[in-house]
Amino acid sequence: MWRGRTLILCLCLTTLVAQRAAAQPAAEEAAADRAEAAAQPPAPVEPEDDRPWFDRLTVSGYAEAYYSYNLGRPQNRVTANRWLDERSNSLTLQTVALDLDAKKGPFALKITLMFGPTADRWYFEGARIPDAESGAVLSPFGYSNETWKHIQTAFASYTAPLGDGLTVQAGLFPTPVGFEPAAVKDNWNWSRSNLFNFLPFFHVGARVSYPVTETWTLAAAVYNGWNQASDLNAGKSLSLQSAMIGDGWIFNALYIGGPERPRGDPGGSAWRNLFDVVAEVDALPWLSLALHGNAGFEKSDYGNHSWGALALYARAKASDWLYFALRGDGIGENVPTDGGAILLGGANHILSLTGTLELRPPGDHFSIRLEYRHDGSDSDVPLFFKRGYDASGQQLLAAAQNTLTLGVTGWF
Question: Which residue among 20, 302, 314, 391 has the highest number of C-beta atoms inside a 10 angstrom radius?
Answer without folding.
Answer: 302
